[in-house]
Amino acid sequence: MRIGVLLSLGIVALADKHGRKRVLVAALIGSCVITAFGAASTGMVWLGTSQTFARSLSTVAVILIAVMAAEEMPAGTRAFAVSVVTMTAALGAGLCVLNLVYVDVAQGAWRVAYLIPLIAISPCFRMARRLPETKRFESRQRRVAATADGRLKDRIHWRRFAMLATGAFLWSLFLAPAAQFLNEFLRTERGFSGILIAVFVLTTNTPGGIGIVVGGKLADRHGRRIIGAIGIAGGVLFTVVSYLSWGWPLWLASVAAAVIGAIAVPALAVYGPELFPTSQRGTANGGLQVVAVAGSSLGLLTVGWLADRVGGLGQAMAIVAIAPALLVIVVLFWFPETARRELEELNPSDHEHNE
After folding, report:
1. How is the chain split into domains, by residue range?
2. Model pTM?
3. Which of 195, 282, 298, 301 could hold 15 in an S-S bridge, CB 3.0 to 4.6 Å?
4. How far is CA 233 from CA 96, 239, 274, in A?
């Protein structure tokens, strides 16, 4: 399914040409419909193919929601807006656990999980009638229409893309294995049962919501760089401690990692929409998602390889923690400060076209 991120890059680029609203609504409805195809799957090829396309459209929706939030919110509340969006997304993802209640009721009951997204189609149509296009995209379309050849040439910000791509790669290199190897770690190295794993994940991850909201507020007030660096450093430190702990220290360290690490989420996530002009915002953020997926894949392979050679997942996670340690330096000394600055100030090409 990770290959589908390349498809999402092509789709999200359409939002820079045809509008955020149009592509977002199409992606939301399309992902619901294609996900439902999984209910009729006769094998892994059908299931995998359908969900690859569904995941691509879901990725497009996530990117465009963040872009629209950044384009519409005031300069002093963009990070908080991203934190609220992240919280609601986490709530939706958390509700997926409820599918476990009925999957064992009867043979084939798991297919119901793929039909549930169809319920969201009607709300999507209602949203489409009420959701406005962003003012910044509409403004750019008017400027394009006013030119002689119907085109505006914006400078491609390759330096900014390289900077954010480096950050996304280093962060995903650690974050993906930390999350995806957790169940295996608890089961094989700490002897947790399936029920205890579910209780552990719910108990330790839920407080992270506090960190997301607080992080958004702090990033708007005190700046993205310092809040992002603190969240990364604290979250990674306690994650490594949790992977090297037993008993109640494992639980406490996991809670601390969730809360402190979550502080960095809105501070870092808002950079993507902020540092590119309107004409490139969708495409650039789609490209960053591709880089993040590459980092995730490499992180999973690296930790899996190291775990067999250094004595377990805890030691492997401690080694790959070098990546986010480098990220702290990158954020503090390379990333610009964008808090309380208008998007036109951060992207002079938009300002020039407005004049």
Report:
1. 4-354
2. 0.89
3. 282
4. 30, 10, 23
